Amino acid sequence: MAESQSQSQDKASGKLYVVGIGPGSVEQLTLKARDVILNADYVLGNSTYLDQMESLLGTQEIIRSYMGKEVDRARKAVELAKSANVVMISGGDTNVYGMAGIVLEVAEHENLDVDIEILPGVTAILAGASILGAPVVTDFAVISLSDLLTPWEVIEKRLNMAADADFVIGLYNPKSRKRKSNFARAIEIIRKYKADSVPVGLVKNAMRGEDEDQIVTTLGEVMNYEDWVDMSTAILVGNGESRIWKSPKKDMIITPRGYHKKYDY
Description:
It is built from eight helices and 13 strands. By secondary structure, the chain is α/β, with parallel strands linked by helices. The longest helix is centred in the middle third of the chain and has 13 residues, at about 150-165. The chain is globular.
């Protein structure tokens, strides 16, 4: 009874959830993300991500949007949340190049007096890492190669500093129809600091069923696969200790965390 009263109060005052849906399958959602989507009054999101959640959408009112309409989408969600339970869908994680930032900025600007909850999701880099083996078990940096919102000069500076510090580097948004050279430019920068033998993993459509694909190669050879890379590809460049394990099933990347220096195994 108390729970029902609490839900009624939430609905009366409104609540805004920003929900990371992970790689895009219902099976990869957190239990709470699934629950709030099912019980929302409104669900907003990019049409691609809404299609991936289709099996959970029925009684809710669905508001579809498209790439480039993120600000309009956030404004609509904030407006609706004044009197309803609203879910804003975000691909991957809500913070990692997701919708959490713009939603909170709009809410701040509107001085929105409702509860906002950010729910995390599996990122493309972490989904890709799990497919590649264990490339990310120590310090790492994630850099988007899209210069739509970040000047290339800033991206280039970050690439230089991350590579010079020998971070494991995750690359988002490597290529698009309008940005065909940024991936090659990024690899050129990283090669100034890392050996050509350093492992590189490329994962396309991570954890998206039959469309998933992967390549394990090296920094010196990765440009042989440039035509294979697109916006759905997550890329992981190892550090100086990373290695390729040619396991009986498939090639995998291992980045040692340092246990071998203390323990005999």
